[in-house]
Amino acid sequence: MTDVHIEVTDRPLDAGAALAFCSAPGHGAADLFIGRVRDLNQGRAVRAVSYDLHAALTRKAFEAICAEAREHWGAGIRLWLAHRHGRLAVGEASVIAAASSPHRDEAFRACRHLVEEMKHRAPIWKQEHYVDGDSDWVQGHALCGHD
Amino acid sequence: MQSEFLIRPFGAFRRYGDEPVRVSVPADGTVADLRAAYAETLPDDNARTLLASSVLATDDVLLRESDPLPETAELSVLPPVSGG
Hints:
- The complex is a heterodimer.
- Chain A is α+β, with helices and mostly antiparallel strands.
- Chain A has helices spanning 15-21, 55-73, 104-121, and strands at residues 4-9, 29-36, 40-41, 44-53, 78-84, 86-89, 93-101, 124-130, 135-137.
- In chain A, the strands form two sheets. In chain A, strands 3, 4, 6, 8 and 9 form a five-stranded antiparallel beta sheet that branches. In chain A, strands 1-5-7-2 form a four-stranded mixed beta sheet, with helices on both faces.
- In chain A, helix 2 (55-73) runs antiparallel to helix 3.
- Chain B has helices at 31-39, 45-52; strands at 2-9, 21-26, 55-57, 74-78.
- Chain B is 20% helix and 26% strand.
């Protein structure tokens, strides 16, 4: 699908590229989400986060999520979904999701769909590294076997 | 007859090591048998509790307990996810 960009990488993510991709002459709306590493989680000071992921299954999950978005909000929308793995410092982008469409409602909804479904379905895990020297894996959402 | 599988750890399972774990189950078994065999390799109840909320998978699909053993011997164990 040339209107969809899916990426799993250990390199810094490019928001400018996401916005440039999510663009078309007939698209009056573009929506961009950037997820960044925060310096505080549940009262603990974070200095870095390491992301682990299953690359093949993450790509499959992203493909399915984007296909759903196209089914719900039109095959003409353009989508970008990229997640980074490895160790990230506070402030670095871990995920970028973007969508463009003729009108704003579809772009907003599609972009939100990408983010929410990614967080619940993609085989990606976050390990926080705290200022006090400790590290721990973040509790998450259980996956289900296929139907 | 037994079938052997390698189960690759992801996420919090890496607490118990990064190397794949070898398990052996009856060739006519199910994914539930794989899970039980893998559980026996885990070091403590915390690990087994984590397994209870985790899924086994090939590189293509997440597996259900009732599924027959997959054709591929290389699997992954996927704990609850926390991407983004």
